[in-house]
């Protein structure tokens, strides 16, 4: 099925309640540096409540700012919230290139930089999540944590999410890149996937990287693992990723 978002989903609306976005810093023992992330707190945010958290990851050309520069997540989420279509949630956009110079510059395919996307697993699990959960009123259970991302971040979401089912019950990969592990490595024990609340795989039909998601999808089908397989028009590009955030976020934490 080719689905699309409702018109205006990413357009700024006047007179609605707004969430807030801030850039935070945390100590990363993994990298040995102070690292940045961008954090969205929803409209009406109150420290008296606890909130589920979506970790939302960028692609090979991005950093912690990429979603906010290109994907308007704040507008998309504020609109959804105003229409009562999503649960209030905190959305953390980390920097998934876990190395000292984590800026998206120079040769982005340098093997050291690609390895840094793998190293991010430890930075996320051991450094960033504990930081978020000690500085925000964030829920601390797997059913209240989601991980999703685009391209390299989609690969990371599968690699990290499925490898850490004790941390995440909601996993989404939008146009996953070749950093995605093979399906058998991602999910050596398909029975365990039954603990997932949502496994979402998607791509744009004009994307040259579709085979990666297709291979995971075929394996999951063979193994009888429930998942959402979402395809839409478009390529390896922002309209697809924004629409995926729009659709995926509506399913979270319900
Ligand atoms: C590759 C092609 C694309 C690759 C990564 C990408 C690691 C990532 C693209 C993106 O994040 O947009 O061969 O190898």
UniProtKB/TrEMBL annotation:
Q: Which Pfam families match?
A: Esterase
- Which InterPro entries would you find in this protein's record? AB_hydrolase_fold (IPR029058), Esterase-like (IPR000801), Mycobacterial_A85_antigen (IPR050583)
Q: Classify the source by domain of life.
A: Bacteria
Protein name as it appears in the record? Esterase family protein
Organism the protein comes from: Paenibacillus silvae
Instruction: Tell me the classification of the organism that encodes this protein.
Output: Bacteria, Bacillati, Bacillota, Bacilli, Bacillales
């Amino acid at each position: 099925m080719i689905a699309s978002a409702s018109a205006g989903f990413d357009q700024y609306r006047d007179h609605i309640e707004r969430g807030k976005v801030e850039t935070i810093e945390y100590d990363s023992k993994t990298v040995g540096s102070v690292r940045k992330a961008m954090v969205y707190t929803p409209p009406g945010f109150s420290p008296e409540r606890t909130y589920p958290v979506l970790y939302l990851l960028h692609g090979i050309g991005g950093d912690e700012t990429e979603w906010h520069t290109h994907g308007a997540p704040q507008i998309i989420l504020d609109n959804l919230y105003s229409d009562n279509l999503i649960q209030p949630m905190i959305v953390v956009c980390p920097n998934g290139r876990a190395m000292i110079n984590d800026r998206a510059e120079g040769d982005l395919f340098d093997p050291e930089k690609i390895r840094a996307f793998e190293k991010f697993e430890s930075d996320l699990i051991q450094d960033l999540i504990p930081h978020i959960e000690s500085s925000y009123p964030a829920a601390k259970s797997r059913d209240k944590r989601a991980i999703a991302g685009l391209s390299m971040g989609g690969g990371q979401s599968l690699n990290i999410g499925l490898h850490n089912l004790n941390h995440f019950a909601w996993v989404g990969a939008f146009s996953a890149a070749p950093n995605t592990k093979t399906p058998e490595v991602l999910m050596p024990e398909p029975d365990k996937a039954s603990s997932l609340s949502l496994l979402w795989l998607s791509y744009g039909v004009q994307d040259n990287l579709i085979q990666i998601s297709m291979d995971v999808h075929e394996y999951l089908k063979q193994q009888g693992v429930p998942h959402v397989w979402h395809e839409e028009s478009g390529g390896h590009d922002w309209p697809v990723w924004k629409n995926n955030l729009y659709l995926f976020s509506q399913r979270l934490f319900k």
